[in-house]
């Protein structure tokens, strides 16, 4: 047998070691600065499970206001559907303008990409506060917040899907003198349909989960009721809301998963 | 029909075409041959400015191609059918939808984008084009479920739908098995003759070059080094253009 010595580990360069040390220092200092102390965490867990603790007060869930919660859940779902639908519709033109091959000018592409990045990086809760100031408390602010968030989310993925689409059919249509819109509708959209569908369904799932939290800042939906229940120490009612919200999210996720499997 | 003089193209300083001079007469089938990397595809793309030439003059269908603005270039391209090495169809759509797309050469708007919205006359013409390539029975079948040869025939039907004056074909037989490749070339050549179309095609198969062309242009080192009638050419004279 030939005696070949293969090193078990790769030799790392000094910059690689320095990078490793910087990352490790960042993680450790972040945990030290912000993570709970073990003692405090232990005491918190004790309080949670104590006879008069949070869990004891949550169980059994209070079913007395199920009908009102159901209506608010419907409003939450409507907010999510409306916000996601509007966001997905507006994401398409932004995505087209942000795509290398389809944008009419590099400056337009840069602006479109900037707007998508801005919409994506600012959290939906911040957008909700912004729109509450603009249109007042209630579901309208929530719908607008979800819409802007989804333009950022779907705009990016739609643009990526269009960038990755096979350019052959587009070139073939360009060669026969088809218009830019003709190429987009005839060649790009059909090629991107599976990706667009998957992104849209993920956007809807994300919107349903997000819309519950938007109520915490007053942007409508079930979140308002959840906050009030916690503020008034009605933990059993809060548990009912959480369980019903969980069921709604589960139904939407299962439904969108089924649709994805049928369409793609 | 086509007149090319001094056509040159370089990519980042690397010359691919070094001044092509040739002419293609109306109604004639011309083969453009040359070894891999000799610039055949680039030359074809330069004719309709899918690749912008670095220098030279192309006159085609009575127009000076380099001087066309965006709108006029689109109008000019609508008269030129292109059959690609890879069929370049939209895979998720039906054969009929892909053929209907050919009408975008002379019609804009959603009625040219979707077969479901297309006027009845357009649908009937698209079906007639599919019938000419023998695929009317597959009209509503997704093109990605068809064989390679059938997909190339759908691409030819799309070109017919365009009602072009000239057809450029970039190795339409290259990605097909020998039998399908020959069928596609025979179909393309036959349809061009029936409709009196000018055909300029690239082929990497000597037997197709000899069988389906009236004239042969040999490209070597970015220049046309042979231009002769097919009838007066034999295989020995062509061999060097097909050597790797």
UniProtKB/TrEMBL annotation, chain A:
<dbReference type="InterPro" id="IPR000515">
    <property type="entry name" value="MetI-like"/>
</dbReference>
<keyword id="KW-0472">Membrane</keyword>
<feature type="transmembrane region" description="Helical">
    <location>
        <begin position="125"/>
        <end position="148"/>
    </location>
</feature>
<keyword id="KW-1003">Cell membrane</keyword>
<keyword id="KW-0813">Transport</keyword>
<dbReference type="Pfam" id="PF00528">
    <property type="entry name" value="BPD_transp_1"/>
</dbReference>
<feature type="transmembrane region" description="Helical">
    <location>
        <begin position="238"/>
        <end position="259"/>
    </location>
</feature>
<keyword id="KW-1133">Transmembrane helix</keyword>
<feature type="transmembrane region" description="Helical">
    <location>
        <begin position="181"/>
        <end position="204"/>
    </location>
</feature>
<comment type="similarity">
    <text>Belongs to the binding-protein-dependent transport system permease family.</text>
</comment>
<dbReference type="InterPro" id="IPR005769">
    <property type="entry name" value="PhnE/PtxC"/>
</dbReference>
<feature type="domain" description="ABC transmembrane type-1">
    <location>
        <begin position="73"/>
        <end position="254"/>
    </location>
</feature>
<keyword id="KW-0812">Transmembrane</keyword>
<feature type="transmembrane region" description="Helical">
    <location>
        <begin position="77"/>
        <end position="98"/>
    </location>
</feature>
<feature type="transmembrane region" description="Helical">
    <location>
        <begin position="17"/>
        <end position="35"/>
    </location>
</feature>
<protein>
    <submittedName>
        <fullName>Phosphonate ABC transporter, permease protein PhnE</fullName>
    </submittedName>
</protein>
């Amino acid at each position: 047998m030939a005696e070949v010595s293969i090193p078990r580990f790769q030799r790392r360069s000094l910059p690689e070691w320095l990078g490793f040390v910087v990352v490790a220092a960042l993680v450790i200092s972040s945990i030290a600065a912000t993570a709970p102390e073990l003692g405090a965490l232990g005491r918190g867990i004790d309080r949670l499970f104590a006879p008069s603790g949070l869990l004891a007060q949550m169980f059994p869930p209070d079913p007395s206001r199920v009908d009102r919660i159901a209506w608010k859940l419907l409003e939450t779902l409507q907010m999510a559907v409306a916000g996601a639908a509007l966001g997905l519709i507006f994401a398409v033109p932004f995505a087209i303008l942000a795509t290398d091959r389809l944008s009419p000018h590099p400056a337009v592409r840069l602006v479109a990409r900037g707007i998508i990045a801005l919409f994506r990086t600012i959290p939906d809760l911040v957008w909700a506060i912004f729109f509450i100031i603009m249109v007042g408390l209630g579901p309208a602010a929530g719908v607008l917040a979800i819409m802007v968030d989804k333009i950022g989310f779907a705009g990016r993925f739609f643009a990526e899907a269009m960038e990755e689409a096979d350019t052959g059919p587009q070139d073939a249509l360009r060669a026969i003198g088809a218009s830019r819109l003709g190429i987009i509708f005839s060649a790009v959209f059909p090629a991107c349909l599976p990706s667009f569908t998957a992104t849209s369904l993920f956007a809807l799932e994300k919107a349903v989960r997000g819309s519950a939290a938007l109520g915490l800042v007053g942007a409508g939906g079930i979140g308002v009721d959840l906050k009030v229940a916690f503020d008034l120490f009605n933990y059993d009612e809060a548990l009912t809301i959480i369980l019903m919200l969980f069921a709604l999210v589960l139904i939407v996720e299962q439904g969108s998963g089924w649709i994805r499997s049928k369409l793609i | 029909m086509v007149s090319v003089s001094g056509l040159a193209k370089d990519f980042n300083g690397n010359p691919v075409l070094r001044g092509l001079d040739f002419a293609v007469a109306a109604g004639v089938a011309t083969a453009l041959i040359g070894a891999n990397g000799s610039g055949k595809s680039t030359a074809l793309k330069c004719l309709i400015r899918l690749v912008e030439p670095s220098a030279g003059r192309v006159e085609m269908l009575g127009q000076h191609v380099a001087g066309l603005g965006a709108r006029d270039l689109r109008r000019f391209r609508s008269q030129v059918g292109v059959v690609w090495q890879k069929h370049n169809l939209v895979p998720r759509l039906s054969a009929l939808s892909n053929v209907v797309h050919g009408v975008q050469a002379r019609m804009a708007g959603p009625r040219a984008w979707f077969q479901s919205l297309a006027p009845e006359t357009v649908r009937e013409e698209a079906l007639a084009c599919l019938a000419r390539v023998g695929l009317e029975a597959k009209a509503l079948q997704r093109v990605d479920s068809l064989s390679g040869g059938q997909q190339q025939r759908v691409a030819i039907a799309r070109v017919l739908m365009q009602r072009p004056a000239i057809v450029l074909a970039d190795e339409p037989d290259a990605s097909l098995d020998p039998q399908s490749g020959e069928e596609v070339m025979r179909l393309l050549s036959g349809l061009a003759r029936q409709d009196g179309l000018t055909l300029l095609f690239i082929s990497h198969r000597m037997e197709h070059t000899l069988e389906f062309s009236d004239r042969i242009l040999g490209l070597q080192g970015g220049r046309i080094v042979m231009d002769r009638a097919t009838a007066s050419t034999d295989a020995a004279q062509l061999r060097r253009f097909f050597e790797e």
